[in-house]
Specification:
It is built from 3 helices and no strands. The chain is mainly alpha-helical. It is rod-shaped, with a radius of gyration of 20 Å.
Amino acid sequence: MNTATASKIESHRRLCLIKDYKETNHWIDTLELAVNEFQHFSLIEKQLIKNIETSNTMLALRRKFTLNMASFCKYEQEIKTEIEYGKTEYNDSRAKVHEIKRLQFVQLIRELHDFRIKFYTLLERYKR
């Protein structure tokens, strides 16, 4: 393989890894915002709704989001290390790993959306 082709392959590998790194960083930021949102939900629940089931659901989701955020941070570090020091080819198996992480993130966002709908439905009971 000539140097131009090897350079092009390396450039493409780095580009794919950088894209994955940026996307993972976005996931972490989104989950951080969600965890902060749960703090606000918790205040509303304690002051207005006062439902232990809702409180426990929020706590469980917040823990789940925090644990997944840690998992994504670890994955982000792995990508960063691979960008800086790795020489592993970016192939289908590497792309599948990232796709699994993406599906995991999408599932978390769906759970957040479902919780928001339930929470706002609880709030509809209250009138001014």
